[in-house]
Structures are given as structure tokens and as C-alpha cells.
């Protein structure tokens, strides 16, 4: 069997992942640097009978994918910066109504229109807290194109399994990078489809009742189980219910269904971590420079530096990060913002004073030299 | 079919009652007209999906035994667009308020018109924001008193019919809750129409609009609709051009969005492949 090997940009790796996962509906509004995802899916989806629609703005796109998801489709939208801000009310609605959807946020410089064509990781906290009220969220990222493919497939899987929006936090640098990507054969990576109710048509279906497997099986608009969906606090039937007991149970459910699974949801990669005295925590593009810095320190100075790459950014993998950073002399968090994940790392490690920060917010990716400068300050040795 | 033969109860989630509308609110009459229209068409509960926004009007979706969604303020039409495009077999109906449809959702309204997607939009126009306490809407009109316009609304109102006509809606009609039977027949035609249809129904809000503007109770407000509206082209307009016209302003056949996408995009590329 000849492998399907392609030399493609990150946007195509994301598109291939979406198609592999069975995405059959996309609604979006163009914005740099995410537009290539929309353009690619506009071309590819109809070939498979899927649908693409360019809406009048990001708010409409978010609402549109929610509508399509309610009618049974595997849906995605993609955006950047200001568009991600506009989608927040819809993301909250999808959390509240437990509607599966994938939102790719190809990050660029901010705030505001900031810098459309250069890289940043400034939306990390917005992905977590952008929408109002208490809810949890799954957000994932990757640092190379093979992983972008894989993480995109996983994002769809988790959206369907957990009935939640999943945010893909890729960035401009990986979006425009070209690399070899091997597209797996069907079946090589697991694809999880929506769990649909087995309740016969005509019997009472509760769209928000948890079954014995801990799942909340869905039905599609038009499939015969008539149900109501509202962004108001609702009961198991989906009807508004603002009684204190109901609201309390609902909020706990929305938060805990994800936060209680933080370890299971954690996708991460380790590089040279077995004997690491120093750990660089990184995610997205930043990981690539972290790996180079670690290799240079090991090869040239014999200083044992390892890298912990977070692919699941939210829910934050408290236990894993705490454990991996436990017996190290220092932890460096590298990110392209003024300090977002670094505060999470400080929150979870046993010795927060050992956590250092290496960042850039000048349109440039963090270079290996930037991280090495931090390592030099900490270890007293430089390469 | 006569009214007596239509059992509209089969379309209602009676467990959800009593509903939240104030006594005398016009929205209940709109709901009745909508359900009778659906009954006239002999539609099954599973054929219909009702998507609303946020506001007193938009609470209607919860009372109806179809697949229903009560979405975000202003976002009913794009959500409905997703439902319709995902499952073109569904009759998708969007009943919402004048604020929801023309202020926060105004952009979506004009683009749904332009696309000509087969959705029936029913604008329950009480010229006020009922749910949030009587602030003015783009349909209030100059001089109307509202909680955010204690000295009278300074800005002009939309003429919804002209707005949606200009944006390309292929079925455009106006009626009132006083003319309940006419409303029923108009909604029926709008649902039957293939393409984007807009039905404006003047619907009284005695609680917020009525009190502030001293228009009397619900019966007086309904009488106002009787006295101040006329069928399109009525002779009375010559004497009094301020009268509001009722009727079907546009009814034309234009290719529908889902069908165009299927035929001109999906079928074409799949054949090529
Ligand atoms: C984003 C957002 N902005 C504002 C509101 C508050 N809000 C709720 S209903 C409403 C107005 C409803 O008026 P209308 O659509 O005319 O319906 P009515 O209540 O008069 O039937 C507003 C402003 C909201 N829910 N969401
Ligand atoms: S406030 Fe007005 S629109 Fe709302 S229910 Fe009462 S009468 Fe109806």
C-alpha cells in the first residue's frame, strides 16, 4: 500500500485532519491568517457531499455551525484574532447547550487588529475565559504539521464525545510552514462519531440526561425526537429551569465533565525528559525552538535540559505538569505573549519560585537563542 | 380546512404552560396564527424546526412541539441557516422580535434575504424591547416614548417591508394580530413559498409600549391596528397616506440557496470527480 505522503502547509494539515475526522459542514468568515482553512474546505467539502458557507461575519458563522450541528453535522469554523473575539458568545452558547463543534483559531498578533500576518500566542487565556460565565473548554495545539493533522482529528473526536466546543489554537507560523505529512489510511487513527440516542422515536427523549456510560446521547433535528435547546439554564429535557438546585447541578456538570477528565484529555509530548535537570514548558510553534535549545545545551555543555510540550492547553494538565517539573532545578515557560500559561505552571508546581519566563511579543517567533539566554541566566552557562 | 378541524394542541408543549407573556400581549395571537397555518398545511410535528432569538417574542420556540432552539439575541437567522442547510427537508421558521431581527440581527436579516434561503421569518413587531423593560427599537419610530427615550425617540424607524424588499427577500408581507385570520393565511403562504420569506406582524405590547405611550389596554391597541392599517392599494390611502399597508408586497420565484448549492456546487463537483 502506498502511503499518502504530502508536502503541504499547516492549513492543509488542518483541513486534511478535519476531512479525515468526517467534518461535513463549515461556516466561516475570512480573516488572516485563517482564511486558507476556509478556502481549502470550500473546495474539498462539496466533493464529499459536505457543505461550506461563507457567512456575513464570525458571529453568524459560529451560530451557523451550531445550527448545523443540531441538525446532525460534524462542524467546524476557523478564524483569527478579532474573529475569535466575536465568536465568544456563540462558544458559550455551544458550551451551555452541549453542542459539539470545532473552532480553529489560527493565532496572530493582538490586541485588536494587531498584526494579521505575524505570529503570537496571545489568545491562550481568551480560549479559556473568553466567554462569560462558568464553563470549561477543551483547547489544543501542535508544533509540527503531522501533529496538526492528528490533533485536528482528536479535536473532532473530543467535541463529539464530550458534547463541547473544542478550540484549535494553532498559530500563524505553523499555518504557513510547509512540511511532509503522512495522511493515514482510514482506520489508522480512531474517528469517534456522535453518540446518538437509542430511545425509540415516540418515547420521551431527554437531551441532557447522562446515561449509565456517563454519556449524553444526542438526537438530530429532524430525526424524530423532538427537543428544545436553549442557552438559558435548563433541565434534562432542555426546558428553562432556574431553580437553585438545577442551576447548581448544570454548572457543576459543564465544568466537571471536562475538568475531572483533565489527565485523560491531556495530550503532551516529552523530549529529553528522562533525566532532565531543567524543563522547558512550551506549546505550539514555541516548542520547536525549545527542542533546539535543549539539544544545544545537552550536546555542547552536557547540561540536561528537557522539553514538555503541551498539546492540550485546556483543561490545564495540573497533575502532569506538576509531576514532570517536580525534580528539576528550574522550569522555563516559553510563549509568545506577556505571560499566560506561565501563570498556570506557577499555580501547579510545588516550587513556583523556580519557574522562569521566556517570551517575545514583537511579531517574531521565539528563537532557540531567546530560550538559551534564559537558560544561561539560570544555569550560569551559555552556548 | 376550517379552524375547528385544526387541533393546534398537537403542536403545543402544554407541560410548558402557563406561558410567560403578559395578559393582553399580542405574541400569543401570533403563535395561534402560526400553528393554524402549520395545521392548514397539514405539516407533521417532525417536519418543522422553529429557531428563535432572545426577547419575549422569541420565547415562542419553547412552547412549540417541534425541534426548537432558543438561540442568542439576534442570532436566530444564522442558526436557522445552519439547520436548513444541514437538513433542507425541514421547514425552518424563525419567529422573533423587532429588536432581535432589525437591530442586533439586522445584518443577518439582510443577508438571509440576499441568499434567498428557504426560511420563514416572522417579525413580531411591537415597536419596543419588551423583555428588557421597554427600551426603543429600530422599529419604534420618532416621538415614541421608551425607557431609553423618555423625551421621545429621536431616530427614524425602518420600514421593514422596504428594507427586506431591497435586500432581496422573495416573499414579503405585513399583517397584524387584529387580523388574525389574515395573519394565519399570510404565514401559510410564506411557509409554502420556496425561498426567504418575511412576514411582519404588528403585535401589541400593552405592558411596555402601551403604558409609556398611553395607547390604552390591549383591546384599544388592537383597535388601533384596525383603524390605522389598510389593505395594500386601498383608496383610503389617498386621503390618509400615513395609514399602514397590509398585504403581500413581494411574491416571486428566485432560485433557492440550498437547491443552488446542491445543484451548482455539490452535484457539479461530484459528477466531475
Ligand atoms: C447580546 C445581547 N444583548 C442584549 C441582550 C438583552 N436583550 C434581551 S431581549 C432584548 C430585546 C428584545 O426585544 P425584541 O426583540 O423587540 O422582542 P420583545 O421582547 O419586544 O418581544 C435585549 C436587548 C441579550 N440577551 N443579548
Ligand atoms: S412585556 Fe410586552 S412583549 Fe413582553 S410579554 Fe409583556 S406584553 Fe408581551
From TrEMBL, chain A:
Query: Known CDD domains for this protein?
Result: TPP_PYR_PFOR_IOR-alpha_like
Q: Fetch the InterPro entries from UniProt.
A: 2-oxoacid_oxidoreductase, PFOR_II, Pyrv_Fd/Flavodoxin_OxRdtase_N, THDP-binding, Transketo_C/PFOR_II
Show where the Pyruvate flavodoxin/ferredoxin oxidoreductase pyrimidine binding domain sits.
16-246
Q: Which UniProt keywords apply?
A: Oxidoreductase
Q: Which GO terms describe its molecular function?
A: oxidoreductase activity
Identification of the protein by name: 2-oxoacid:acceptor oxidoreductase subunit alpha
Domain Pyruvate:ferredoxin oxidoreductase core: residue ranges: 276-371
Task: Report which superkingdom the organism of origin falls in.
Answer: Bacteria
UniProtKB/TrEMBL annotation, chain B:
Provide one Gene Ontology biological process annotation. Answer: small molecule metabolic process
Domain Thiamine pyrophosphate enzyme TPP-binding, by residue range, is 54-201
Q: Which GO terms describe its molecular function?
A: oxidoreductase activity, acting on the aldehyde or oxo group of donors, iron-sulfur protein as acceptor; thiamine pyrophosphate binding
Ligase among the record's keywords?
Answer: no
SUPFAM superfamilies for the chain: Thiamin diphosphate-binding fold (THDP-binding) (SSF52518)
Q: What top-level branch of life does the organism fall under?
A: Bacteria
Keywords for this protein: Oxidoreductase
Question: Which Gene3D superfamilies does the record match to this protein?
Answer: 3.40.50.970
**What InterPro entries does the record point to?**
2-oxoacid:Fd_oxidoreductase, THDP-binding, TPP_enzyme_TPP-bd
Cleavable signal peptide: none
PANTHER family from the UniProt entry: 2-OXOGLUTARATE OXIDOREDUCTASE SUBUNIT KORB-RELATED (PTHR48084), 2-OXOGLUTARATE SYNTHASE SUBUNIT KORB (PTHR48084:SF1)
Q: What is this protein called?
A: 2-oxoacid:ferredoxin oxidoreductase subunit beta
Task: Identify the taxonomic lineage of the organism of origin.
Answer: Bacteria, Pseudomonadati, Thermodesulfobacteriota, Desulfobacteria, Desulfobacterales
Amino acid at each position: 500500500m502506498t502511503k499518502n505522503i504530502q508536502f503541504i502547509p499547516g492549513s492543509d494539515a488542518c483541513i486534511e485532519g478535519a476531512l479525515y475526522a468526517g467534518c461535513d459542514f463549515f461556516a466561516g468568515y475570512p480573516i488572516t491568517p485563517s482564511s486558507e482553512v476556509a478556502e481549502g474546505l470550500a473546495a474539498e467539502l462539496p466533493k464529499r457531499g459536505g457543505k461550506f458557507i461563507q457567512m456575513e461575519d464570525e458571529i453568524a458563522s459560529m451560530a451557523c455551525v451550531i445550527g448545523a450541528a443540531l441538525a446532525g453535522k460534524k462542524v467546524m469554523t476557523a478564524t483569527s484574532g478579532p474573529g475569535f473575539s466575536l465568536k465568544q458568545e456563540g462558544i458559550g452558547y455551544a458550551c451551555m447547550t452541549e453542542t459539539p463543534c470545532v473552532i480553529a483559531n489560527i493565532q496572530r498578533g493582538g490586541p485588536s487588529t494587531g498584526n494579521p500576518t505575524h505570529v503570537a500566542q496571545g489568545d491562550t487565556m481568551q480560549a479559556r475565559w473568553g466567554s462569560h460565565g462558568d464553563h470549561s473548554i477543551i483547547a489544543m495545539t501542535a508544533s509540527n504539521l503531522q501533529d496538526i493533522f492528528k490533533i485536528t482529528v482528536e479535536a473532532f473526536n473530543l467535541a463529539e464525545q464530550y458534547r463541547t466546543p473544542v478550540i484549535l489554537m494553532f498559530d500563524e507560523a505553523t499555518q504557513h510552514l510547509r512540511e511532509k505529512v503522512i495522511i493515514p489510511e482510514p482506520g489508522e487513527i480512531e474517528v469517534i462519531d456522535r453518540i446518538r440516542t437509542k430511545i425509540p422515536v415516540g418515547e420521551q427523549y431527554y437531551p441532557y440526561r447522562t446515561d449509565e456510560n456517563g454519556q449524553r446521547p444526542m438526537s438530530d433535528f429532524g430525526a424524530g425526537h423532538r427537543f428544545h435547546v436553549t442557552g438559558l439554564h435548563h433541565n434534562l429535557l432542555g426546558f428553562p429551569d432556574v431553580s437553585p438546585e438545577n442551576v447548581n447541578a448544570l454548572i457543576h456538570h459543564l465544568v466537571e465533565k471536562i475538568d475531572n477528565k483533565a489527565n485523560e484529555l491531556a495530550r503532551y509530548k516529552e523530549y529529553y525528559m528522562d533525566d532532565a535537570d531543567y524543563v522547558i514548558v512550551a506549546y505550539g510553534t514555541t516548542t520547536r525552538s525549545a527542542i533546539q535549545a535543549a539539544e544545544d545545551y545537552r550536546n555542547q555543555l552536557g547540561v540536561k535540559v528537557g522539553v514538555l510540550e503541551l498539546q492540550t492547553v485546556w483543561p490545564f494538565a495540573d497533575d502532569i505538569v506538576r509531576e514532570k517539573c517536580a525534580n528539576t532545578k528550574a522550569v522555563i515557560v516559553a510563549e509568545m505573549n506577556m505571560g499566560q500559561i506561565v501563570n498556570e505552571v506557577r499555580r501547579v508546581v510545588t516550587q513556583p519560585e523556580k519557574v522562569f519566563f521566556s517570551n517575545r511579543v514583537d511579531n517574531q517567533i521565539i528563537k532557540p537563542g531567546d530560550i538559551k539566554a534564559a537558560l544561561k541566566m539560570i544555569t550560569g552557562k551559555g552556548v | 380546512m376550517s379552524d375547528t378541524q385544526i387541533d393546534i394542541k398537537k403542536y403545543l408543549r402544554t407541560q410548558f404552560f402557563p406561558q410567560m407573556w403578559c395578559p393582553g400581549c399580542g405574541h400569543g395571537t401570533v403563535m395561534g396564527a402560526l400553528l393554524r397555518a402549520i395545521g392548514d398545511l397539514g405539516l407533521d410535528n417532525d417536519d418543522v424546526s422553529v429557531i428563535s432569538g432572545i426577547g419575549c417574542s422569541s420565547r415562542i420556540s419553547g412552547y412549540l412541539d417541534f425541534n426548537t432552539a432558543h438561540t442568542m439575541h439576534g442570532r436566530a437567522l444564522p442558526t436557522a441557516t445552519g439547520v436548513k442547510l444541514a437538513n433542507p427537508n425541514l421547514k425552518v421558521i424563525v419567529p422573533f422580535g423587532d429588536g432581535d431581527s432589525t437591530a442586533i440581527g439586522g445584518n443577518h436579516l439582510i443577508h438571509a434575504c440576499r441568499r434567498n434561503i428557504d426560511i420563514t421569518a416572522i417579525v413580531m413587531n411591537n415597536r419596543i424591547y419588551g423583555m428588557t423593560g421597554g427600551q426603543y427599537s429600530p422599529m419604534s419610530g420618532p416621538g415614541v416614548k421608551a425607557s431609553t427615550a423618555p423625551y421621545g425617540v429621536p431616530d427614524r424607524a425602518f420600514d421593514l417591508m422596504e428594507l427586506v424588499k431591497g435586500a432581496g427577500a422573495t416573499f414579503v408581507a405585513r399583517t397584524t394580530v387584529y387580523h388574525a385570520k389574515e395573519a394565519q393565511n399570510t404565514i401559510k403562504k410564506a411557509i409554502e413559498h420556496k425561498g426567504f420569506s418575511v412576514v411582519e406582524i404588528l403585535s401589541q405590547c400593552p405592558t411596555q409600549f402601551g403604558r409609556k405611550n398611553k395607547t390604552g389596554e390591549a383591546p384599544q391597541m388592537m383597535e388601533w391596528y384596525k383603524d390605522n392599517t389598510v389593505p395594500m392599494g386601498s383608496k383610503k390611502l389617498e386621503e390618509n397616506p400615513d395609514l399602514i399597508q397590509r398585504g403581500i408586497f413581494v411574491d416571486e420565484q428566485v432560485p433557492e440557496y440550498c437547491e443552488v448549492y446542491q445543484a451548482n456546487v455539490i452535484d457539479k463537483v461530484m459528477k466531475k470527480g
